[in-house]
Request: fold
Amino acid sequence: MAPATIISPRRRTEAPRRLPSPSSPPRKLRPISEILKRAKYAVVERAEYSDIFCEQCGSGERPEELLLCDKCDKGFHMKCLRPIVVRIPIGSWLCPKCSDTRKRRRRSVSLVLLKKRRRLLPFIPSEDPNQRLRQMGTLASALTAMQMKFSDELTYSSSMAPRSANQAKFEDGGMQVLSKEDMETLELCRAMSRRGECPPFIVVFDSCEGYTVETDAQIKDMTFIAEYTGDVDYIRNRENDDCDSMMTLLLATNPCESLVICPDKRGNIARFINGINNHTPGLDIQKRPLVFCWDFIPWGLLVGFHIPLWEGKKKQNCKCVRYGVNGECRVLLVATRDIAKGERLYYDYNGYEHEYPTHHFV
Ligand SMILES: C[S@@+](CC[C@H](N)C(=O)[O-])C[C@H]1O[C@@H](n2cnc3c(N)ncnc32)[C@H](O)[C@@H]1O
Reply:
């Protein structure tokens, strides 16, 4: 906003200045806050503003009711504005057009920032090679216990679904495409993993949750955690499969073409990440915080709502997202907030089909 032009020591949108009558005794100066509280109208100083008229009604009458925009210098009757301005604004005032431009400019800036912030970040491997060995060791133990082999990519076999079946264009309603920059980040992470610079996570065993993944360093929001890998198969082949780690890969318009990832023989750390319980409220309703809102209530009543605060939602710190990458579907796990070292990873298993039973999850 352009700085206000100084035409007198007073602001143009300020309250009227009452000149003391020659007969009255000198008065003490009142604080500006008190003057503004009592002020009814804006005063236009006639000497400099005699040619000002209202942009809405075109009239220059009732100059004492004219507000001047601190940016474009144009005049507006307080009662011609919508909504009507009933008292002189405290501080600077912008007319509807100037405040709209400012809002729009602000919005586009924040969108750019938002876009920048939403870019995928590569994980940062621990510097100490011994620490990385320990991390890989915990994964190797868990894989061995599950009789699985490590695989950091999707695998295809003729007895299941061929690679040609994995086409993002088959997705019912289309699939979001991973941006070029995010693809580079994904490739960078894969290259790091191949060199033994693994992501800083460990797999631990918990008597309630089974295997679960914990961070071994602080993780930033939007950090790429892992790709969900395993054998790709048609959903139709797996209808009676009791594997609890299957992941949706493709939901095709023709259900016969839908695919799942099955990490029963091969997979990576993604297969050990646990889910949130999104059925059971963690706090009883009386103890949930109240949120107050009066925005949409015309008669200005203050209304409080209880917001459902599911414990699981609070634990959730990553998400599982399907993307089209070079025309194929891929499933990526990404941090949804900053995660402290030692925190366990959780995401919502019911992201797509709302079917996974999580009632028993801790
Ligand atoms: C993809 S696996 C995750 C790794 C699994 N915990 C394991 O030991 O192999 C999914 C299974 O883990 C278990 N699980 C996942 N999240 C859980 C949670 N929050 N509490 C308890 N069990 C959970 C459930 O048995 C679920 O079917």
Summary: The helical segments are 32-38, 46-49, 96-117, 129-145, 180-194, 311-315. The chain is about 20% helix and 20% strand.
